[in-house]
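A reminder from the course coordinator: this example appears on the midterm review sheet, so study it carefully.

Given structure:
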């Protein structure tokens, strides 16, 4: 769990170091904007943005029961962040699998993408869809309910 916070903590520390250096130059507006940018980057890359990940086997089992899609993702992926942010609150209804934490999830993504770990890969009714449009994912989620 601690590994997931390394990048966000580094971003906050780097932003703080750069801001401290710029304070001595006397440009508070630049310091504020830069610090805010680093904090936003840290927040977007933190585990707070994504719902709690589960294992691929558990996600597939749950999806078979409730019909909701499974999303395979990895930290730092801009397309995964785009999907998560554009889904809004409905993202919490999906089953999220972090392929860097789950070897079975990584294997499922490679099987669906000709050996590549291309994410996000969304599995709906057993069919994988690589980097789908968030509106389409929302429709699939609505139809599974």
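Designed residues:
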């Amino acid at each position: 769990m601690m590994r997931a916070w390394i990048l966000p903590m580094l971003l906050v520390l780097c932003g703080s170091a750069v801001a401290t250096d710029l304070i001595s130059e006397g440009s508070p507006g630049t310091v504020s904007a830069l610090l805010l940018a680093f904090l936003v980057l840290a927040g977007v890359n933190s585990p707070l943005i994504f719902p709690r990940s589960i294992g691929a086997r558990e996600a597939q089992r749950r999806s078979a029961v409730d019909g909701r899609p499974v999303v395979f993702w990895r930290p730092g992926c801009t397309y995964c962040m785009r999907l998560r942010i554009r889904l809004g609150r409905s993202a919490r209804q999906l089953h999220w699998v972090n392929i860097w934490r789950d070897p079975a999830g990584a294997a499922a993504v490679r099987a669906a993408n000709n050996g590549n770990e291309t994410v996000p890969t969304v599995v709906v009714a057993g069919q994988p869809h690589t980097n789908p449009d968030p509106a389409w994912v929302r429709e699939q989620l609505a139809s599974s309910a």
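The chain has two domains: 2-44, 56-144. Strands lie at 70-73, 95-98, 121-124, 127-130.
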